[in-house]
């Protein structure tokens, strides 16, 4: 299990809290490096004794040349860069593997909250779902951790442990025979999803949203198990690990010769013990050993994860949530601060009060102590604020009328070189005002007043020619004025009056052809015999007169009378009820409409109306 020392470094006092950690042995650097260091020192002293007692003068001279050569060129190995980057990659991978380990606690809470039923079948469903989830993660651990594999080497051991039933084991064995290449850790998740679907059909899960939540959690759990398998099969590239290992060991092979004491050495301290060479070996090799122990945290090292503890913990916590604590909670009572709404401060013990006496202020933000002088607190406009040209334009409108000017070529060429100017006051006379040429309103007006005859098309062309002539004339007049006027824009002004509609663009005197103009009015008809009774009757209709409101057909059997009209609404009298008066008004309105339609139509204008 990972060696924890968090409690010992919670408070830093005196010379620091890390110095007291140097005396630990379990999980320490001494435990990792001591054997390599002994071998290094043994080889170092062997070479040193050979130089001092076994070699002659010629041999010593050759030995000294080799020492100088290794010392000069040994520093060319980029050990710090290669080893530091490798350890950084391994540390990141080590933490990512821990965060990828799935825990069934969230899923157990969802199962307990959504799978209802206090009977035996509901209890079996909840426990079985969580047993399948724990079986999935345990099978994953057996494929990536030697410690769990030694605990559950076969499916029979999972059956004996209670994570798997005999019938379920037979299904897995048959699948392994048919598909031996792939792992079956995902199979319990499929079984759990089937149980959730069955619980929904039986009404033990109340809504589909709860089903979706459970299925999503199952897929998330299965994805994390798959991620652990991916970490196991896809490791740090082998070539990088080989480069780092060769760099470290080749560097210290050259150090064995390059840091040897010889007769012409400047310092005699290395004659007895290579102090800094030993420290260098201790740090670099210790760095490499850290990477070796963390590259697979599911092994038997001191800092590896305690996966066997996780297996026991997962099953116990899952059963506790979905069975023992299912739909159970303490009694609902008022809390201690019910009348106060919230406490001003929670009490302290004597030991905690002594430590908190030094902290008599609450945490403050970083700008809490920044004060602004009163004379500098007045709000003011920024110095870089620009004057709004439209506001200046509105202010200057009071001095005179506004005239829009346009450039003849601006409507047909690029507006890249166009400039905006404003004619304000009396700098431009009223005669120079220009109508809105080529605007959206004029286009819509010409479109709806277009006629199919040639005369109308010619009139339209003449209107466009007159507008262009007016545009050119106004442009020539503006050129004569020179710089005395400011243009509002060099382009033709395009704008639409929002308060006008399409139909209002047509002149009141314009005539449009219609159906009455093409086919003419219908021939006059005979006068209609008005009934004398109080109610309108169609018993003697005039077949020569067009009736736009024919009587309704009576689909019900009977004598054809309208029984619905005889129903009384409200208070009735013997002579006449309210319904009869309403019916008279309706008949009068109908007759007025008929007379209006049959009245002579006035002669239309030659071009329509």
UniProtKB/TrEMBL annotation:
Q: What is this protein called?
A: Bestrophin homolog
Q: Membrane spanning segments where?
A: 29-47, 73-95, 129-148, 238-257, 269-287
Q: Which UniProt keywords apply?
A: Cell membrane, Chloride, Chloride channel, Ion channel, Ion transport, Membrane, Transmembrane, Transmembrane helix, Transport
Look up and give the organism this protein is from.
Dendroctonus ponderosae (Mountain pine beetle)
Membrane topology annotation:
Multi-pass membrane protein
Briefly, what is this protein's role? Answer: Forms chloride channels.
Family designation: Belongs to the anion channel-forming bestrophin (TC 1.A.46) family. Calcium-sensitive chloride channel subfamily.
The answer to whether the entry has keyword 4Fe-4S is: no
Domain of life where this protein originates: Eukaryota
GO CC annotations, alphabetized:
chloride channel complex; plasma membrane
Coarsely, its chief localization is: membrane
Which InterPro entries does this one have? Bestrophin (IPR000615), Bestrophin-like (IPR021134)
- UniProt cross-references to Pfam families, sorted A to Z: Bestrophin
Q: Which residues form a coiled coil?
A: none
PANTHER family (alphabetical): BESTROPHIN, BESTROPHIN 1, ISOFORM C-RELATED
The segments labelled Disordered in the record are 553-584
Entry's Gene Ontology molecular function annotations: chloride channel activity
Where does it live in the cell? Cell membrane; Membrane
Question: Span of the secretion signal?
Answer: none
């Amino acid at each position: 299990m990972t060696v924890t020392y968090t409690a010992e470094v919670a408070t830093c006092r005196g010379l620091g809290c890390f110095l007291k950690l140097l005396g630990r042995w379990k999980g320490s650097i001494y435990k990792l490096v001591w054997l390599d260091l002994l071998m290094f020192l043994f080889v170092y002293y062997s070479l040193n004794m050979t130089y001092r007692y076994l070699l002659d003068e010629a041999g010593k001279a050759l030995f000294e040349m080799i020492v100088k050569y290794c010392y000069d060129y040994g520093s060319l190995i980029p050990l710090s860069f290669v080893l530091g980057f490798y350890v950084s990659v391994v540390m990141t991978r080590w933490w990512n593997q821990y965060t990828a380990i799935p825990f069934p606690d969230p899923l157990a809470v969802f199962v307990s909250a959504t799978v209802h039923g206090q009977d035996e079948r509901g209890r079996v469903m909840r426990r079985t779902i969580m047993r399948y989830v724990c079986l999935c993660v345990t099978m994953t651990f057996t494929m990536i951790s030697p410690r769990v594999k030694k605990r559950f080497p076969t499916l029979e051991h999972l059956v004996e442990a209670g994570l798997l039933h005999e019938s379920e084991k037979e299904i897995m064995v048959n699948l392994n025979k048919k598909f031996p290449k792939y792992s079956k850790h995902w199979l319990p998740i499929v079984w759990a999803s089937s149980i959730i679907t069955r619980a929904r059909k039986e009404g033990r899960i109340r809504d589909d949203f709860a089903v979706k939540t459970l299925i999503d959690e199952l897929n998330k759990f299965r994805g994390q198990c798959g991620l652990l398998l991916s970490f196991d099969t896809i490791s740090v590239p082998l070539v990088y690990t080989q480069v780092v290992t060769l760099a470290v060991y080749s560097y210290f092979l050259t150090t064995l010769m390059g840091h040897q004491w010889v007769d012409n050495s400047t310092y005699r301290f290395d004659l007895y013990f290579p102090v800094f060479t030993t420290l260098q070996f201790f740090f670099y090799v210790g760095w490499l050993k850290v990477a070796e122990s963390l590259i697979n945290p599911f092994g038997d090292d001191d800092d590896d994860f305690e996966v066997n503890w996780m297996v026991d913990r997962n099953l116990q916590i899952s059963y506790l949530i979905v069975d023992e604590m299912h739909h159970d909670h303490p009694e609902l009572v008022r809390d201690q601060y019910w009348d106060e709404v919230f406490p001003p401060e929670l009490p302290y013990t004597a030991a905690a009060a002594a430590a908190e006496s030094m902290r008599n202020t609450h945490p403050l933000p970083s700008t809490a102590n920044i004060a602004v002088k009163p004379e500098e607190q007045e709000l003011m406009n920024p110095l870089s604020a620009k004057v709004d040209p439209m506001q200046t334009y509105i202010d200057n409108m009071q001095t005179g009328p506004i005239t829009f000017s346009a450039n003849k070529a601006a409507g047909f060429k690029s507006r890249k070189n166009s400039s905006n100017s404003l004619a304000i006051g009396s700098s431009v006379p009223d005669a120079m005002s220009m109508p809105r040429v080529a605007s959206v309103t004029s286009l819509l007006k010409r479109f709806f007043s277009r006629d199919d005859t040639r005369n109308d098309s010619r009139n339209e062309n003449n209107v466009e020619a007159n507008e262009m002539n007016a545009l050119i004339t106004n442009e020539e007049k503006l050129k004569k004025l020179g710089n005395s006027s400011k243009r509002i824009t060099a382009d033709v002004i395009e704008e639409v009056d929002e308060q006008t509609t399409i139909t209002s663009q047509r002149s009141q005197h314009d005539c449009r052809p219609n159906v009455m103009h093409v086919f003419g009015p219908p021939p006059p008809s005979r006068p209609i015999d008005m009934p004398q009774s109080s109610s309108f009757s169609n018993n003697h209709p005039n077949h020569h007169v067009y009736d736009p409101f024919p009587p309704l057909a009576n689909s019900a059997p009977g004598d054809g009378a309208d029984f619905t009209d005889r129903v009384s609404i409200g208070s009735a009298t013997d002579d006449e009820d309210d319904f009869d008066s309403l019916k008279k008004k309706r008949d009068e309105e109908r007759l007025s409409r008929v007379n209006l339609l049959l009245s002579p139509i006035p002669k239309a204008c030659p071009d329509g109306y």
